Amino acid sequence: MKTSPVCCCITATLITLVALLPLLTACSDYSETVDTSTLTVALNFPDEVEGTKEGIRVELKSIGHEAIFVDSTDAAGIATFRVTPGIYEATSSTTRQQGTNSILILNGSSGQIVVKGDAPKASVSISLMSSRISQLVIKELYNGGVLKDDGKNFMYDKCFILYNNSSTTASMDNLCVGIATPYNSQANNNWYGPDGKLIYEAKGYIPALDGIWYFPATLHIEPYSQIVVNVHGAIDNTLTYPQSVNYARADYYCMYDPEAGYTNTNYYPTPSEVIPTAHYLKAVKIGIANAWALSVTSPALILFQTQGDTPRGFATNVSNMAYTPGAAQTDINKAAKVPVDWILDGIEVFSAAHGTSNVKRLTPTVDAGYVNLTNQHGHSLYRNVDREATEALPENEGLLVYGYAADPSGIDAEASLQQGAHIVYQDTNNSSNDFHQRESCSLKER
User: What distance in Å separates the CA atoms of residue 254 and residue 211, rounded to the nearest whole number?
Assistant: First the structure.
């Protein structure tokens, strides 16, 4: 989902009402004893985007509760909700055809809307931001680890899978991977300004901490095919921990570059001899850590291509660095400013165990939502299938397997792939819609 921002800001209006009831109640459940307010959510479209404003889905979530309301916009682009006092988050996503070969994804979110008064009406506006989809997507992220026999977490068992989501070969130069700061979604985040917005949103970049990894040569991926990238421990982990993953495969890639300064052998044992050295990713270390510590609870992973510079040139240029606001300008607080329009894909992960303490790091142009992870149990985060697009491929006749409840499409992607089907995955730049938690990493089925 290569990004090309058209609108650089999201307008979120803080709604202040007198607090009466802490819970959100569905419209049909309201009684005369419950005080409610009308909340309107107006979508602002970029001037360059044409098409109707009517019938666009707007989702309103009650922060700290399970309640979710959904409404569609009217002809003016406005959705209307009845709410009780509480804290909410509004999001919306839609698509627009751009010419004959390009599709624009429009995403927007409100941030937190606080309803705590007795005003009968209130409103919030969301400026939608546009991005173009990429043929290369993050298909799966496995980072939470598994439990060992002693009940402790084996966390050196991480990977992600990149997938060519198109019918043409993907050839990628200067392909890089980074993680947004801070490491964990539940950590204190000093990158928010007094207005409640991420300070880098208007500046058009994502701060990537610790370092970046990159493919040392042009990466070619055939249509509807994938590559596996091991993050830590490119060996057969199942020999010691049966519930983990075997990464000793000649077609896998791995992050392994001790010369860059990532020398912690707990994270980077010598890769299996079956993995060719040409499949070793290179790194540029930015911070002081001796390992690129992809969070076991809640990373924000980005995939990007440098433009006009090599990955090493970009990551060693001091003008491309930023520092944690309010902190000393030292290496421990340093991050690389990755331009949003370089980013092909991103996934924002929230820790299921930390509820309302989770805070977003990726801006709506990159990922307008998030996906929850319960770590330590071998779960992975897996991209949903675009059922309509997948079923439309004539070569898939008789090859698709159904009955997989975790995916809203109902299609069992992995079983279908094993039958020889071509899968088209959903890509709306919104992890809330695009991903689900899978019981176990798909690599365990290979």
Answer: 16
